[in-house]
Specification:
Elements: H1 9-31, E1 42-46, H2 53-69, E2 73-77, H3 84-91, E3 99-104, H4 105-113, E4 125-140, H5 149-158, E5 163-167, H6 173-185, E6 189-193, H7 197-206, E7 211-215, H8 216-224, E8 229-233, E9 259-267, H9 272-286, H10 289-297, E10 301-304, H11 307-328
Parallel strand pairs: 1-2, 1-3, 5-6, 5-7
Antiparallel strand pairs: 3-9, 4-7, 4-8, 4-9, 4-10
Helix pairs in contact: 2-9, 4-11, 6-11
Pfam families: TctC
Signal peptide: 1-32
Keywords: Signal
Length: 333
């Protein structure tokens, strides 16, 4: 009798088990499709033009994420409306893991700043993880008799017209850092908005305005050159790049911890397995020494953590800036 014909009962049982195992082997990839992601390049949308801090950080992270994921991560700059154009684009994208967004402090501010948005900053995004945080620095024109926050307060109180503070535009984190300090200090402070940080700094150096809560990467070269004087930094800890500059907390304002921040996010409804895979990849990227070094050069502190950490942090930021925006009476259309 041919060994391949009329199998015995024992052989039939072995064949049945083999068939079941084969069926499971075929079914498993179908059930675990998110595990096969990604199979093509991933787009990372940035709501600002190329060259700014958000873009630079996004490009650094994109290259490293691509290495982790085995597919290129391509930065797509969609500037406009204080990052709202890019956010709306991603909010409407398919939640398949192939379109991501650099969610920032601006999105939590915009939730209250704009009466109408084309997206919901909370419901339309799944946060994957925090990337990094960058503090602001209170800087003044060095011709002023201000060398500390106490001097700043005294100058504002003694000056007939108070003190002016510039910003990169109404509703920016630079502007609202000043508004938060104004709320806390009760000083007579006049906001002078500009179309970007560069022209604001130019006028600050020229003496047209008195002060500014500028982003550290923007202000640092001018502080080092002696063109601006750093009074206090808005993070909870001092910066290694300016170790002699005290924090706002050390200068008498407990809890004053304001930083620009950046997070990785995806459209709401993205499969949890993909979110977890991206979070794991992001945390590995942020642990790499060369990434940490590059961020440190920008005065940025790597963040990382879980998606839940990012959600809680963004929720707290939404509440914080809602109060500041309303108190300042700021709005945008």
């Amino acid at each position: 009798m041919n060994a391949f014909s009329a199998p015995s009962a024992a052989r039939r049982r072995v064949l049945a088990l083999a068939a079941t195992a084969a069926a499971c082997a075929v079914a498993l990839p179908l059930q675990a499709q998110p595990g096969a992601w990604p199979t093509k390049p991933v787009r990372l949308v940035v709501g600002y033009a190329a060259g700014g801090a958000t873009d630079v950080i996004a490009r650094l992270i994109a290259v490293k994420l691509g290495e982790q994921l085995g597919q290129p991560v391509i930065v797509d700059n969609r500037a406009g409306a204080n990052s709202n154009l890019g956010a709306e684009l991603v909010a409407r994208a398919a939640p398949d893991g192939y379109t991501l967004y650099v969610y920032t402090i601006a999105n939590t501010i915009n939730a209250t700043l704009y009466s109408k948005l084309g997206y919901d900053p909370v419901k339309d995004f799944d946060l994957i993880g925090l990337i990094a945080k960058i503090p602001n620095i209170l800087v003044v024109n060095p011709a002023l008799p201000i060398r500390s926050l106490a001097d700043y307060i005294r100058y504002a109180k003694e000056s007939k017209n108070g003190i002016t503070f510039a910003s990169s535009g109404s509703g920016s984190s630079i502007h609202l850092s000043g508004e938060m300090f104004k709320m806390r200090s009760k000083l007579n402070m006049l906001h002078v908005p500009y179309k970007g940080s560069a022209p604001a700094v130019t006028d600050l150096i020229g003496g047209q305005v008195d002060s500014m809560f500028d982003n550290t990467p923007s202000a640092l070269p001018h502080v080092k050159a002696g063109k601006l004087r750093a009074i206090a930094i808005t993070s909870a800890q001092r910066s290694a790049l300016l170790p002699e500059v005290p924090t706002m907390i050390e200068s008498g304002y407990p809890g004053f911890d304001v930083q620009s921040w950046f997070a990785l996010s995806a459209p709401a409804g993205t499969p949890p397995a993909i979110i977890e895979q991206l979070n794991a990849a992001l945390n590995k990227v942020l642990a790499q020494p060369d990434v940490r070094q590059r961020l440190a050069e920008m005065a940025a502190t790597p963040a990382g953590g879980t998606p839940e950490d990012a959600r809680k942090f963004a929720g707290a930021e939404l509440q914080r800036w809602r109060e500041v925006v309303k108190a300042a009476g700021v709005s945008a259309q």
